[in-house]
């Protein structure tokens, strides 16, 4: 990969200032604004950053996988709940139908009894 030039000193940017997280040249390293800073060669810094990035991507991949698993599990629970709700709706409907039939039968019996009483009178 081509290494750029320092805008201040027209030197190749061969160092990475770990403290400031920026590329620098050899002259920049000795400047006052980088005094006491830590430096690494560009290739070493790039390899280190690449490892950090790979570790981060691997962690994110695991996190995404865990979230997908959780979502799948929750969707299954939602599906089961919907099935139970539908079964309950059918059962309640059936029980109400039985109650209606019983009440209609009882109503007919009472009406017949009233008619019998009225006829006898």
From TrEMBL:
Keyword Coiled coil: yes
Residues in B box-type domain copies: 1-42
Classification via SMART domains: BBOX
Coiled-coil stretches noted in the UniProt entry, renumbered to this chain: 64-91
Alphabetical keyword list: Coiled coil, Metal-binding, Zinc, Zinc-finger
SUPFAM superfamilies in alphabetical order: B-box zinc-binding domain
Protein's UniProt keywords contain Ribonucleoprotein: no
Signal peptide: none
InterPro entries attached to this UniProt entry: TRIM/RBCC, Znf_B-box
CDD domains: Bbox2_xNF7-like
Domain of life: Eukaryota
Record-linked PANTHER family: E3 UBIQUITIN-PROTEIN LIGASE TRIM
Protein name in UniProt: B box-type domain-containing protein
Organism whose genome encodes this protein: Ilyodon furcidens
